[in-house]
Amino acid sequence: xxxxxxxxxxxxxxxAASGKSTAARGVAQRLxxxxxxxxxxxxxxxxxxxxxxxxxxxxPAAVAxxxxxLEIRYRLDGSGVPVLHVNGAPAPQSEIRHPRVAAQVSHVSxxxxxxxxxxxxxxxxAELGLIVMEGRDIGTVxxxxxxxxxxxxxxxxxxxxxxxxxxxxxxxxxxxxxxxxDIARRDRIDSxxxxxxxxxxxxxxxxxxxxxxxxQTLALMVKHIEAATAPRRRRKP
Length: 237
Hints:
Elements: E1 8-13, H1 20-31, E2 34-37, H2 38-51, H3 60-66, E3 72-76, E4 82-86, E5 89-90, H4 93-96, H5 99-102, H6 105-109, H7 112-123, E6 130-135, H8 138-142, E7 148-153, H9 156-164, H10 176-192, E8 205-208, H11 214-229
Parallel strand pairs: 1-6, 1-7, 2-6, 7-8
Antiparallel strand pairs: 3-4, 4-5
Helix pairs in contact: 1-11, 9-10
């Protein structure tokens, strides 16, 4: 499927380390679309709050007050690839994916003012055409009328092992047990927050990738997307 201007939104929601980013990136590549990582947008806000020395967990009002000073959006680079920018410059991956950011991002994403501020910034990416967006409330809040919605999950142990395998995502000395405990804590925050809690959309296709390879997961997703976007056959009179 060639890259196109037709507006198609593929929403991929799920808990931490469930493989959303890998799946979304792979699906976008196979369909010629644009991959949008909303988690990185929240990480960017978290990074900026930490840079300002804010007490994220105990002073969410200070985080909310910081927002007018931020410009966070995806812009296409010279190759036509969406790149997250913060105040006009590409967001440094080494900073936004640092363990100190990972430890605080769920607290930031639970702040109602932050989530409300993010909605329009995430929705405007639909102007690009075919987008594959991953996060925790894409199918329920950001694009409730998305063309296809997925909820991707995996067992706690599998998710912990995947997180450990990601360079820079965990602190030195982290174990499967410690990472699983941290993921469980983040799940609890994400699923119990008052605004846009983590949950599958009523019409989402739930995929448990615990026993699936990435190729199997991608093939399954692409099959559903192609079925949903295929031109309807005209009925014979």
